[in-house]
Amino acid sequence: MTYSGRVTVGGPADVHELKDLMITKVAVGPMENNAYLLRCRATDEQLLIDAANDAGTLLGMIGDDGIASVVTTHRHGDHWQALAEVVAATGARTYAGRYDAEGIPVPADVLVDDGDVIRVGQVELTARRLVGHTPGSIALVYDDPHGHPHVFTGDCLFPGGVGNTHKDPEAFASLLHDVETKIFDVLPDETWVYPGHGDDTTLGAERPHLPEWRARGW
Protein backbone atom coordinates (compact mmCIF):
# COMPACT_ATOMS: atom_id res chain seq x y z
CA MET A 1 0.00 0.00 0.00
CA THR A 2 1.12 3.55 -0.68
CA TYR A 3 2.26 5.51 2.36
CA SER A 4 0.04 8.51 3.13
CA GLY A 5 1.26 9.67 6.53
CA ARG A 6 -2.32 9.95 7.78
CA VAL A 7 -2.83 8.17 11.09
CA THR A 8 -5.38 8.44 13.89
CA VAL A 9 -5.24 7.56 17.58
CA GLY A 10 -6.38 3.97 17.97
CA GLY A 11 -6.02 3.33 14.25
CA PRO A 12 -3.37 1.37 12.37
CA ALA A 13 0.17 2.55 11.87
CA ASP A 14 1.35 3.65 8.43
CA VAL A 15 4.65 2.37 7.05
CA HIS A 16 6.95 4.24 4.66
CA GLU A 17 9.28 1.70 3.09
CA LEU A 18 12.56 3.13 1.81
CA LYS A 19 15.45 1.12 0.40
CA ASP A 20 17.61 1.35 3.55
CA LEU A 21 15.06 2.41 6.17
CA MET A 22 11.54 1.56 7.25
CA ILE A 23 9.56 4.35 8.91
CA THR A 24 6.47 3.42 10.91
CA LYS A 25 4.18 6.25 12.02
CA VAL A 26 1.53 5.98 14.73
CA ALA A 27 -0.64 8.53 16.55
CA VAL A 28 -1.00 8.32 20.34
CA GLY A 29 -2.48 10.22 23.26
CA PRO A 30 -5.05 12.96 23.83
CA MET A 31 -3.02 15.50 21.83
CA GLU A 32 -2.74 13.14 18.87
CA ASN A 33 1.04 13.02 18.90
CA ASN A 34 2.96 11.26 16.19
CA ALA A 35 5.62 8.73 17.12
CA TYR A 36 7.99 7.32 14.51
CA LEU A 37 9.80 3.99 14.60
CA LEU A 38 12.83 3.82 12.32
CA ARG A 39 14.28 0.43 11.37
CA CYS A 40 17.56 -0.06 9.51
CA ARG A 41 16.85 -2.67 6.86
CA ALA A 42 20.47 -3.92 6.83
CA THR A 43 20.82 -4.53 10.57
CA ASP A 44 17.24 -4.48 11.93
CA GLU A 45 18.32 -1.99 14.61
CA GLN A 46 15.47 0.32 15.61
CA LEU A 47 15.17 3.89 16.89
CA LEU A 48 12.03 5.59 18.21
CA ILE A 49 11.34 9.31 17.77
CA ASP A 50 9.15 10.66 20.60
CA ALA A 51 7.78 8.17 23.12
CA ALA A 52 4.84 10.51 23.36
CA ASN A 53 2.09 8.49 25.04
CA ASP A 54 0.46 5.05 25.29
CA ALA A 55 3.49 2.89 26.01
CA GLY A 56 1.51 -0.25 25.17
CA THR A 57 0.93 0.89 21.60
CA LEU A 58 4.54 1.95 21.20
CA LEU A 59 5.95 -1.28 22.64
CA GLY A 60 3.61 -3.29 20.44
CA MET A 61 4.90 -1.41 17.40
CA ILE A 62 8.50 -1.94 18.52
CA GLY A 63 7.98 -5.66 18.94
CA ASP A 64 10.32 -8.29 20.32
CA ASP A 65 13.41 -6.85 18.61
CA GLY A 66 13.39 -3.85 20.94
CA ILE A 67 14.95 -0.48 20.20
CA ALA A 68 18.53 0.68 20.55
CA SER A 69 17.62 4.30 21.16
CA VAL A 70 14.85 6.84 21.59
CA VAL A 71 15.10 10.49 20.60
CA THR A 72 12.90 13.13 22.24
CA THR A 73 12.47 16.08 19.89
CA HIS A 74 11.78 18.62 22.64
CA ARG A 75 10.85 19.14 26.26
CA HIS A 76 7.06 19.57 26.06
CA GLY A 77 5.27 16.98 28.14
CA ASP A 78 3.06 15.58 25.42
CA HIS A 79 6.19 14.24 23.69
CA TRP A 80 7.59 12.16 26.56
CA GLN A 81 4.65 10.73 28.54
CA ALA A 82 5.65 7.13 27.68
CA LEU A 83 9.40 7.67 27.71
CA ALA A 84 10.13 6.24 31.16
CA GLU A 85 8.07 3.11 30.52
CA VAL A 86 9.53 2.51 27.06
CA VAL A 87 13.09 2.94 28.31
CA ALA A 88 12.46 0.65 31.28
CA ALA A 89 11.09 -2.04 28.96
CA THR A 90 13.78 -1.77 26.28
CA GLY A 91 16.93 -0.41 27.92
CA ALA A 92 17.20 2.08 25.05
CA ARG A 93 19.72 4.91 25.00
CA THR A 94 18.06 8.30 25.35
CA TYR A 95 18.83 11.34 23.22
CA ALA A 96 17.62 14.92 23.64
CA GLY A 97 18.70 18.37 22.56
CA ARG A 98 21.27 19.82 24.95
CA TYR A 99 19.14 22.87 25.75
CA ASP A 100 15.90 20.95 26.33
CA ALA A 101 17.20 17.95 28.25
CA GLU A 102 16.72 19.51 31.68
CA GLY A 103 12.99 19.77 30.99
CA ILE A 104 12.61 16.06 30.25
CA PRO A 105 12.21 13.90 33.37
CA VAL A 106 14.08 10.90 31.96
CA PRO A 107 17.79 11.78 31.86
CA ALA A 108 19.38 11.93 28.41
CA ASP A 109 22.26 9.53 27.90
CA VAL A 110 23.38 11.66 24.95
CA LEU A 111 23.01 15.44 24.72
CA VAL A 112 22.52 16.43 21.10
CA ASP A 113 24.00 19.53 19.48
CA ASP A 114 23.34 21.06 16.08
CA GLY A 115 24.94 18.94 13.38
CA ASP A 116 25.41 15.84 15.50
CA VAL A 117 24.88 12.48 13.80
CA ILE A 118 22.62 9.87 15.39
CA ARG A 119 22.84 6.38 13.94
CA VAL A 120 20.30 3.60 13.66
CA GLY A 121 22.17 0.63 12.29
CA GLN A 122 23.86 1.80 9.08
CA VAL A 123 21.56 4.80 8.66
CA GLU A 124 22.68 8.28 9.72
CA LEU A 125 20.39 11.05 10.96
CA THR A 126 21.69 14.60 11.27
CA ALA A 127 20.31 16.71 14.12
CA ARG A 128 19.35 20.34 13.56
CA ARG A 129 18.68 22.60 16.52
CA LEU A 130 15.68 24.84 15.86
CA VAL A 131 15.21 27.56 18.48
CA GLY A 132 11.85 29.18 19.20
CA HIS A 133 9.21 26.57 19.97
CA THR A 134 11.55 25.58 22.80
CA PRO A 135 15.22 26.48 23.41
CA GLY A 136 16.53 23.08 22.38
CA SER A 137 14.14 21.48 19.89
CA ILE A 138 15.83 19.20 17.40
CA ALA A 139 14.82 18.00 13.96
CA LEU A 140 16.37 14.88 12.43
CA VAL A 141 17.34 14.79 8.76
CA TYR A 142 17.80 11.54 6.84
CA ASP A 143 19.46 12.22 3.49
CA ASP A 144 18.41 9.09 1.62
CA PRO A 145 21.24 8.14 -0.80
CA HIS A 146 18.66 6.44 -3.03
CA GLY A 147 16.14 9.27 -3.16
CA HIS A 148 15.10 12.53 -1.53
CA PRO A 149 15.71 13.62 2.08
CA HIS A 150 13.31 12.99 4.96
CA VAL A 151 13.07 15.27 8.01
CA PHE A 152 11.41 14.67 11.37
CA THR A 153 10.52 18.13 12.65
CA GLY A 154 8.90 17.61 16.05
CA ASP A 155 6.74 20.69 16.69
CA CYS A 156 8.92 23.11 14.70
CA LEU A 157 7.37 22.70 11.25
CA PHE A 158 3.89 21.57 10.20
CA PRO A 159 1.73 21.80 7.10
CA GLY A 160 0.80 25.47 7.10
CA GLY A 161 3.48 26.95 9.32
CA VAL A 162 6.14 26.76 11.96
CA GLY A 163 5.40 25.61 15.50
CA ASN A 164 3.69 27.63 18.22
CA THR A 165 5.83 30.42 19.64
CA HIS A 166 3.07 31.72 21.94
CA LYS A 167 2.81 35.16 20.30
CA ASP A 168 6.42 35.96 21.21
CA PRO A 169 7.80 37.93 18.23
CA GLU A 170 11.42 37.18 19.14
CA ALA A 171 10.77 33.43 19.44
CA PHE A 172 8.84 33.43 16.17
CA ALA A 173 11.64 35.24 14.34
CA SER A 174 14.16 32.79 15.74
CA LEU A 175 12.17 29.71 14.78
CA LEU A 176 11.36 30.95 11.28
CA HIS A 177 15.02 31.88 10.75
CA ASP A 178 16.25 28.45 11.86
CA VAL A 179 13.64 26.57 9.84
CA GLU A 180 14.50 28.61 6.75
CA THR A 181 18.29 28.42 7.03
CA LYS A 182 18.67 24.86 8.32
CA ILE A 183 15.77 23.18 6.52
CA PHE A 184 14.36 25.09 3.53
CA ASP A 185 17.64 26.63 2.33
CA VAL A 186 19.57 23.36 2.29
CA LEU A 187 17.00 20.69 1.38
CA PRO A 188 15.08 20.23 -1.88
CA ASP A 189 11.36 20.55 -2.50
CA GLU A 190 10.99 16.76 -2.58
CA THR A 191 12.02 16.52 1.09
CA TRP A 192 9.34 14.65 3.06
CA VAL A 193 8.36 16.27 6.37
CA TYR A 194 7.19 14.18 9.34
CA PRO A 195 5.76 16.50 12.04
CA GLY A 196 5.01 15.90 15.70
CA HIS A 197 1.25 16.08 15.14
CA GLY A 198 -1.00 15.63 12.14
CA ASP A 199 -0.35 14.85 8.51
CA ASP A 200 2.97 14.84 6.69
CA THR A 201 3.92 17.38 4.04
CA THR A 202 6.82 18.26 1.75
CA LEU A 203 9.08 21.27 1.68
CA GLY A 204 7.88 22.00 -1.84
CA ALA A 205 4.28 22.26 -0.65
CA GLU A 206 5.22 24.69 2.12
CA ARG A 207 7.99 26.77 0.55
CA PRO A 208 5.72 29.18 -1.42
CA HIS A 209 4.02 30.18 1.84
CA LEU A 210 7.12 31.30 3.75
CA PRO A 211 6.46 35.00 3.03
CA GLU A 212 2.88 34.59 4.30
CA TRP A 213 4.12 33.03 7.53
CA ARG A 214 6.58 35.86 8.05
CA ALA A 215 3.90 38.47 7.42
CA ARG A 216 1.33 36.96 9.77
CA GLY A 217 3.91 36.45 12.56
CA TRP A 218 2.90 32.95 13.65
Automatic annotation (TrEMBL):
Coiled coil: none annotated. InterPro entries: MBL_Glyoxalase_II, Metallo-B-lactamas, RibonucZ/Hydroxyglut_hydro. Pfam families: Lactamase_B. Residues 32-197 form the Metallo-beta-lactamase domain. Transmembrane segments: none annotated. This is MBL fold metallo-hydrolase. It comes from Streptomyces althioticus subsp. attaecolombicae. The lineage of its organism: Bacteria, Bacillati, Actinomycetota, Actinomycetes, Kitasatosporales.
